Amino acid sequence: MAQQWCNRNYWNSRQAPKKNQVISQSPTTLQPSFLLEQCRTLSLSAVSLKSIPSSTRVLSSMGSLPEVSGQLVYPSVKRDDSIVEDYHGVPVADPYRWLEDVDAEAVKEFIGAQRKLCNEVLNTCSLRERFRERITDLFDYPKYDCFMRRGNKYFYFYNTGLQAQSVLYMQDGLEGEAEIFLDPNKLSDDGTVALSAYVFSENAEFIAFGLSSSGSDWINLKVMRVADKTWEPDTISWVKFSSIAWTHDNKGFFYSRYPAPMLDGSVDAGMETNINLNHKLYYHVMGTDQEDDVLCWWDMENPKWILEATVTDDGKYLVLCITEGCDPVNRLYYCDLSSLSNGISGFGRNSELLPMRKLVDNFDAQYELIANDGTSFTFLTNNNAPKYKLVRVDLENPDVWVDVIPESSSDVLQSVRCVNESQLIVCYLSDVKYVLQVRDLASGSLIKHLPLDIGSVLNMSGRREDKEIFINYASFLTPNIIYRCNLSVEDPELEVFRESIVKGFDRTAFQTTQVFVPSKDGTKIPMFIVRKKNLELNGQNPALLYGYGGFNISITPSFSVSRIVFAQHCGGVLAFANIRGGGEYGEEWHRAGSLANKQNCFDDFIACAEYLIRSGYTQSKKLSIEGASNGGLLVAACMNQRPDLFGCALAHVGVMDMLRFHKFTIGHAWTTDYGCSEKEEEFKWLIKYSPLHNVKRPWEDSAKDGVQYPSVMLLTADHDDRVVPLHSLKLLATLQHELCLNSKDNKQTNPIIGRLDSKAGHGAGRPVQKLIDEATDKYAFMAEVVNAQWVD
Fold it and tell me: If DSSP states are collapsed to H, E and C, what string results for 286-328?
């Protein structure tokens, strides 16, 4: 949150680094960056479509796509009914387990057939080219990120509009002439190499970059000399979920990585599904090979632990944050670097590790380092404070912790940053609205409120030594404002420093309201609604409901060109449900939607959908739902439980197999939110809502006569090594088999398709053209199936 690897704010775009550190990724099932423009018994050996007699293919009428003539042909897919696993005495079939083998020819044929089917459907969507043209036009606006001062220069990221990746610029002074420092668009021909981390050395002589390819969580670290912008020979591979922390002698930096996966040469990095274990902390000395890096610390008895290193502002201490799952809890160890008589390079040989002292040696609460003055350390924590508080402890008296800013009774202390030597920039979340304050570091007392409109603080730059801060702000109707605040004056104010204007979009024609919807158990669920001011609430409007509900992640206002196009030209209503499981009201809100309470997330989302219908915003057949990652699970579970309530379901990179998710890449970290099928009680929770295991033909229930599943698009990508594609592939095969291919009285006329992207991952680092292509396809599909009309 230094950023935790289970960062509450990770989904918000690139986070400007603190003193000498930035987290590269967070292994939660998080919201992908596109929002910010960021499965029963199945089998038959693999057969290509051409080898299947047409008489064996079941054809489904495309009544929900009025421009389609004829019938939609679903590919026949093999099932292996012999795969049955015993879960605590309960036999569970897994007929599509063969789809877990990413390198198998049968899987490649399945993906090819599904891509062909998807393209056939998308080619019939009458508004596809209008969406593409309009999204492209509106996306072409300047995008700024926070300025940050390093040495005697300012650095910032900027995109002219349609560049694949934002470019890092450098200039003298705030009004100096800008020059390109690093253009990541020159690192690949197609824009799929992205900067995922960047940290300057203490003297600003060097900058370490993390480079990711095709959206994978794996990154390579490279180092550039700032003065002449030349690359150093240093290269570090197989880094994942790592911070970068330079020592103040500028000789090197700490980073964390896993052992390199075993790849056979036919699978790209990021396409493998091997479980990630044995995270280790290393120190790299500039000018040396990676094989000579010093192994500083790891725990062989706890292979699931994940390590994040920070060097304190005074350069004296290494602070190690240790996490095991995605709960907001961590252990906290430290090492006095000044006490190492032979320096860091004297360790790591003969299995000798850095002498770490344990300040917190349990997983009871979260501790995020904010500042230190000698042995006095200040932390943001949720220890006995579910809405978080600021505390202080002296390393020489570690049993005494003192509150600096007590927990609020109503608002969540979202983030704290130490600036201007003795001040704090404090950010609260109050009913999902940001509150920004300046406070005193020593006492925690309030100095000044910094007023903001309803929106989100996407990120912030400013270090303890800086007398100014920059804040990146956005809302549903405001794409990007960079505020500057000069803290050296007596009465600091937020001043607009840069502002993005989207040509052709009049935000005054729209309105944002917040409502509080009673859920099934009476809990009030906040929901933002964005629509045209003159829109008639007659139940005839197409609507899109978005949700997430997990991992303590708060869904706060953000600007999306593609959604604005839907609202502007299709009269669409946009709704964002802040359901339980998120962090909107602190850890209690999170807990109320996790583990045994996960059904609350689905009940909350369904209640919000019913509210939109009841209040005249829309009707079931015109209501679409969308979610990504954990939100993809949300969408799939809700369409299983209430197929009658929705007209369209868009599920991105979702966790769909709740019985096996922990076996792949970083999935084991999610058991803190979901539970694990290897434990009997938790298996009983999971089997009840696991999307893969709860697909049913609704028309076979006499009480649901005439009900079918909504139109469905599952979206995933081949280099998603966070929520691996097998989740979506297995659910796609199951849905098509159960609803479209295996019923004599088939009533599923709504299409079920998968958009399976290539050279892309979980969402982060995706080039602009891929963002536009995906938005075009999903919203053109959605508009077609809910019969939305285009108005210029």
Answer: CCCCHHHCEEEECCCCCCCCEEEEEECCCCCEEEEEEECCCCC
Please name the amino acid found at residue 373: D
Per-residue pLDDT at 576: 98
Q: Which residues contact 726 (CB under 8 A, 6 or more apart)?
A: 99, 100, 102, 273, 657, 664
Q: Which of 345, 243, 302 is nearest to 7 (CA)?
A: 243
HSE, CB side, 13 Å, CA atoms: give it for residue 121: 33
Per annotation, catalytic residue among 554, 629, 690, 728: 629
Q: Which of 468, 401, 390 is nearest to 427 (CA)?
A: 390
720 is catalytic: yes
Q: Are 654 and 691 in contact (CB under 8 A)?
A: yes
Dihedral angle computed from the Cα positions of residues 548, 554, 556 and 558, in that order, rounded to the nearest 10 degrees: -60
Distances (CA, A) of 437 to 452, 487, 762: 10, 12, 34
Q: N- to C-terminal Cα distance for the chain?
A: 43
pTM over 0.90? The answer is yes
Nearest C-alpha neighbor of 199 from the set 233, 155, 245 = 245
Both tokens of 124, joined, read 């019939």
* 338 assigned to active site: no
Residue 51 CB contacts under 8 Å (≥ 6 apart), including other chains: none
List strand residue ranges (DSSP E) for 142-205, in order.
Answer: 143-144, 148-150, 153-159, 167-171, 179-182, 193-200
- How many beta carbons lie within 10 A of that of residue 430, not counting itself? 14
Angle at 590 between CA 4 and CA 360, to 5 degrees: 45
The SS3 call for residue 241 is coil
Euclidean distance between CA atoms 26 and 552, whole angstroms: 13
Q: In the structure encoding, which two tokens stand for residue 113, read together?
A: 């057939």
**Listing from the earlier edge strand, what are the strands of the sheet with 376-381?**
367-373, 376-381, 389-394, 397-405
- DSSP-derived letter for residue 15 is P
279 carries an active-site annotation: no
Per the CB < 8 A criterion, the answer to whether 475 and 512 are in contact is: yes
Find all residues with CB under 8 Å of 549, minimum gap 6, and list them: 577, 579, 580, 581, 582, 593, 601, 604, 605, 630, 631, 634
Contact predicate 622/543, CB 8 Å: yes
Q: Which of 94, 145, 720, 777 is catalytic?
A: 720
- Regions of the chain short of the pLDDT cut 70: 1-70, 264-266, 348-350, 743-744
Contact between 8 and 414 (Cβ < 8 Å) = yes
C-beta of residue 761 within 8 angstroms of C-beta of residue 722: yes
Q: At what angle do helices 630-641 and 599-614 cross, to 10 degrees?
A: 70
Cα–Cα separations (whole angstroms), residue 32 to 332, 629, 631: 29, 8, 10
- DSSP single-letter state for residue 243: B
With tokens 């590919």, the residue in question is: 75
Scanning the structure block, which residue is given the tokens 């490649």? 108
How far out from the chain centre does Cα 676 lie?
22
The secondary structure of 467-514, three-state, reads: CEEEEEEECCCCCCEEEEEECCCCCCCEEEEEECCCCCCCHHHEEEEE
Catalytic residue among 757, 762, 773, 777: 762
Give the rounded distance of the alpha carbon of 228 from its chain centre.
Answer: 35
Q: How does 446-485 read in b/e, with b if 16+ C-beta sit within 10 Å?
A: eebebebebbbbbbbbbbbebbbbbbbbbbbbbbbbbbbb
**Joined tokens for residue 112:** 């090819």
To which residue do tokens 């290494």 refer? 318
Could you tell me the strand order of the sheet in which 412-419 lies? 412-419, 423-430, 433-440, 446-450
Spatial distance between the Cα atoms of 476 and 491, rounded to a whole number of angstroms: 30
